[in-house]
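Exercise 7b. Backbone tokens:
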């Protein structure tokens, strides 16, 4: 359980608060009892040894309750400091995890961005230099090799028909030879 130390410290803080509250109740009772005994001692003429002893015990009880409250307050401050430290440590751990996650995400984001830049650059080269593996042959302009489909039973790949120069007619060739003869004779 990840939050167990926090729960334990919070429970300890509650116990310390209960001790302080108990000490406060003891102080109030003891101070009231001291006041009552002092009034009774003042009202008694000539003093009373038993009341003086009782007043001493009541003052000791009041001092004990005051010490208990001071110790409880010191423990409470310590518990609060430990709890604040625990929260600080937890926040530090969460910050470290967040920083690590951000690094991982930004690494993948940069990789995707640079891959996109590479694809765009290749697109620029293809469109600028006319590089393609399309209808007119391979990238270097030679005849295209038919694709290898060893296991494929799909429809055969049809290559586009090649355009050929129509044969010259005889009338065109005689006209050309007559023109050539005129040019050379002149």
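Sequence design result:
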């Amino acid at each position: 359980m990840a939050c167990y130390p926090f729960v334990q410290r919070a429970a300890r803080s509650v116990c310390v608060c209960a001790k302080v509250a108990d000490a406060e109740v003891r102080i109030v009772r003891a101070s009231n009892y001291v006041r009552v005994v002092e009034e009774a001692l003042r009202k008694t003429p000539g003093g009373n040894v038993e009341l003086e002893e009782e007043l001493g015990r009541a003052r000791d009880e009041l001092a004990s309750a005051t010490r208990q409250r001071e110790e409880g307050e010191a423990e409470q401050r310590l518990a609060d400091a430990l709890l604040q430290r625990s929260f600080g440590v937890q926040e530090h751990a969460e910050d470290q995890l967040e920083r690590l996650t951000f690094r991982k995400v930004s690494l993948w984001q940069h990789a995707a961005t640079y891959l996109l830049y590479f694809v765009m650059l290749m697109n620029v080269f293809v469109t600028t230099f006319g590089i393609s593996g399309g209808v007119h042959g391979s990238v270097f302009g030679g005849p295209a090799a038919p694709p290898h489909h060893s296991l494929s039973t799909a429809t055969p790949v049809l290559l586009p028909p090649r355009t050929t120069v129509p044969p010259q007619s005889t009338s065109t060739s005689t006209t050309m030879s007559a023109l050539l003869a005129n040019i050379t004779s002149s």
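Instructor comment: The first helix runs from residue 4 to 43. The chain is about 75% helix and 0% strand.
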